[in-house]
Design a protein that fits this description.
CATH class: Alpha Beta
Strand order of the largest sheet: 1-2-3-4
Structural class: alpha+beta
Number of strands: 4
Largest sheet: 4 strands, mixed
Strand content: 15-25%
Length: about 140
């Protein structure tokens, strides 16, 4: 648990590297909800796409979730609070017009990058169509 960095960990760097190779440009660790201390791992402002790379332990992955036996009640509450906070963050970002992509740390990098690229490029295309319709 303590070995994995919260920001810019190896998995996140691999994903960012692949996105960059595909010509996608992004911002890192942005606070999109100004009233909250919540940061988005990878942000595509133009397409309004927010990407979170969630750790299986800390965010309660349904495939790899484990409940520690020591101090079990505290850990269960901590992880369940994290899950609730993630859902709340998603709701708030969606209400502001953002598309939210959540990725588990165990997912294949190539599949994750394909998914993000599709979402970002479709968001940019929709923006172009929308802007083009109102041009004079």
């Amino acid at each position: 648990m303590s070995v994995t960095r919260g920001r810019s960990n190896a998995r996140e760097r691999l994903i960012r590297s692949e996105l960059h190779k595909r010509g996608l440009r992004f911002r890192l660790h942005q606070r999109l909800l100004k009233t909250k201390r919540r940061t988005v791992d990878i942000v595509f402002p133009r397409a309004q796409v927010a990407v979170f790379v969630d750790g299986c332990f800390w965010h309660g992955c349904p495939l790899h979730r484990t409940w520690p036996k020591n101090n079990a009640k505290w850990w269960r509450e901590k992880i369940e609070t994290n899950i609730a906070r993630d859902r709340d963050t998603d709701r708030q970002l969606l209400a502001l017009g953002w598309t939210v992509v959540r990725i588990w740390e165990h997912e294949q990098v190539s599949e994750v990058v394909d998914q993000i690229e599709r979402v970002v490029r479709s968001g940019i295309s929709a923006l172009r169509r929308h802007r083009g319709a109102h041009r004079t």
